Amino acid sequence: MNPISTEPLSGPAARFPLYGPEFAADPHAAYERMRGTFGPFVPVELSPGIPATLVIGYFQARSILNDPLRFPADPRVWEQTVPASCPVRPMMEWRPNALRSGGTEHSRYRSANTASIDAIDQHELRALVEQVAADAVNGFGATGRADLATQYAFPIAFRVLSSMLGCPDEIGARIADGMSRIFETTDAARGNEILGQAVADLVSLRRHHPADDVTSRLIAHPAGLSDEEMGHQIVTLYGAGIEPLTNLIVNTWWKILTDEEFSATLHSAESTIRDALDTVLYTDPPMANYCISYPRYDADVDGTLLPAHQPVVISMAACNNDPVLTGGLPPDAFVGNRAHLSWSTGPHTCPARSHAYLIAETAITFLADAFPEMDLAVPADEVRWRPGPFHRALESLPVVFPATR
């Protein structure tokens, strides 16, 4: 049996660091090297001195994601060994929510979230996205240039999610600031502090002034969530909404602007925007490495022993591109393939998948219709990817197009 060490390694079997600019610049090359050296289970560091196992085998990942008894999502034992200053801790620490719970508590939190999300009217949601997209386009259309990350995708994700949650702009801006700091892992402790106060203010507002929104429905749900529990549900919804949704829209536009063959299939109607989204989710998902679990005991998976209480991180990006799954064909051969793990699977599958699809598809379609002649404003090799162990995110996506009135 091949054990994964609990200690940082050195020499040829050193842990792969997932936090530096080198990994962010070309993670797929890193996954290929990992696969050749370690197979489906890779010893990595999420930040300096924080070891984990990265799962890059598709079928091994599915097995783990569907086995919550051996691979629970509760990190509280692991947390005892990690300092509060650890930059990745806010993305991984225990919170009373569905993402970090199991058993009856998971069912309680998930039922409240699912019921509150499912009550969203899809037609109203599409109209809201179109209105927010129009406002964004009106803000930069006359200039003939824009940064699609900061001027289009982020405002859409932020404003739409805030509207769904019944969150005023002032509170939403603080939530967005806190989430950004946490995802970047550079000022995560401060981000956690900002986020906690902002969501507490939102919960207080909606307890005193309920409305037709997700937050008010969570408060009214028979699960009887406390203020603390409410705050953590909102943190989860924002965390799963703003950053990944922004990155999904931006990464899809990056693919359209830089892959001529891919773009041609869209313009000739051989594929759809939904196909484009699934191709990006398959090849370069906005959450590349996540779905973290913490085995209670040393766990044997296909002859490899995963250490107790050490994080097991699923690499959706690497698993989707596992040669065992793809047959060795390049990822782009699977346009529109929905076998990917980018929404996870098992008990922690994303409950808002249809809403995320609708928002991203509507936003991308609106911009494509508004500016059919759009190009990168800089050479493709000048566009940079943001470092971080979890996300796949561009720093910016500058574009040019014929100015409109």
Describe the structure.
The longest helix is centred in the middle third of the chain and has 32 residues, at 227-258. The chain is built from 17 helices and 11 strands. It is an alpha/beta fold. Strand 3 (41-47) and strand 4 (50-55) form a beta hairpin. It has a single domain (2-400), classed as Cytochrome p450. The chain has helices at residues 21-25, 27-38, 58-65, 76-79, 89-92, 103-118, 122-140, 148-165, 169-184, 188-208, 214-220, 227-258, 260-267, 273-283, 316-320, 323-326, 353-370, and strands at residues 2-3, 16-17, 41-47, 50-55, 145-147, 289-293, 299-301, 304-306, 312-315, 375-376, 398-400. Helix 7 (122-140) runs antiparallel to helix 8. The strands form 3 sheets. A 5-stranded mixed β-sheet has the order 2-3-4-9-6. The chain has a 3-stranded mixed β-sheet with strand order 1-8-7, with no helix packed on it.
